[in-house]
Amino acid sequence: MEEYLEATYDKFIFRVKTDCRYTKDEFWAAIKGRVATVGMTDFQQKSKGDVTILTTVAPGTELKQGQTMGDMETIKATIDLIAPVTGKVVEVNPALRDRPFLINDEPHGAGWIYRIELADPEGDAGALLSAAAYFELLKEKIVQEAKNLYG
Amino acid sequence: MQTPLFGAHAALGARMAPFAGWDMPIQYDGILAEHTRTRQAASVFDICHMGEFEARGPTALADLERLLTQPVATLAVGQCRYGYLLRDDGGVRDDLTCYRLGPDRFWLVVNAGTTPQDAAWIRQHIAPTTQFTDLSADTGKLDIQGPTARVEMEKAFDLRLPELGYFRFIELRLDGVPCLLSRTGYTGEFGYELYGPASAMRAFWDRLLQRSAIRPAGLGARDTLRLEMGYPLYGHELSAEQTPAGASRGRYINMAKDFIGRPAVAAELAQPRQWLVGLQLDARRAARAHDPVAWNGRAVGVVTSGSFAPSLGVAVALAYVAVDAAQPGQRLTILTRGGELPATAVTLPFYRHGTARGAPPPP
Q: Which architecture, in CATH terms, is A26-127?
């Protein structure tokens, strides 16, 4: 069963999936063996609004943690996608090509963005925030960015 | 506020967002798909939020001639023309289309967010013998846009439509309901704007979707389509803070007549400071409204709209740029929060294959 930590602000609930790891740039990675599935956090997608146009890098692209891995336009902003891990893109979520707003509907599910073959699985995992650590960071951000939330 | 089609949008699973006080569909099955379909086939847009006014009577023509920048007296019955409604200081109250339904009978089609203020302003500036009616609450509008719009409209309503010139319109009955159909639009493609009773819109919408190949498109695709054509959007390229001179460069303005706001427009056209220009970016990443534009390290302008342009494969933007840096071919830099984006000033429209002006290709 999937488990989430939840932070609430006004009518918004921000969910943090407990079996993922996170970056301060608001991306998550679910690492299984040598492959990480990565996507955008629930907080980021709710803050920035519906994704309208997504630009991704091609499979085979080598990424370094912290590097830009594409960008997306939402109804409110243009946002860089920032690689949470180092490795080679092995798959781009094909469903996002026509329906980029799956990132909004299911940021931890059907809205995943890349599968990345990790150069150093253990090093990457160590460099990412645990769900609990990210959750603390999230609660601080909610206070700071409360005014920018849509609705 | 909700349009008569709110329930239809919900049933289609549209993603909604607030726009000018209305809860409007932004996208149904994705902006890229809706954009491409409008360029290649046909889409229907719910535009019921926009405002419609009627002015009639022996003094209506003279009143509108003074209120609007576009020539009114030379409009033929059955013709419409785009232009501006200005403040005394030349600031743009609205951009609008004026339809001539009869010698002394006109319609004005205005933006949603400005409808109440426009109505109040016009009422203050008309003769007692001009009857002014705000039809907005009872009038709906559907935009049917795309190269196959005519054949699909004919299929949906089981009728033959006459050849209509660009910016020409007819009054007709659809299913017995009196409507107005103009060959106009905001996408750059062949198509129509259909006006009729708000109460009939749901039936028209359902008919179009059931009996033709037309699919719905939202305000997201409407925005990328209009941006590729370089069409201004009120609140972005046009505002009360500036005259329309920089955006229009004199088009849609009849300087040979006296109209409200004329002195400021004349002064700016005589000594222009900035032009609205098209910026084609080198890559896909979009600039956004309010991003500064630089030339040789000097701030020369500001972006008013920006997006990835699906038909071009790169991002484009509209920006006000100082006249000396606004020539086509000029290389400029847009300063975004995420970094600098190189761009080239280009002649509008960005997208040059639109079917709006020409006859649609044969089916």
A: Beta Barrel (2.40)
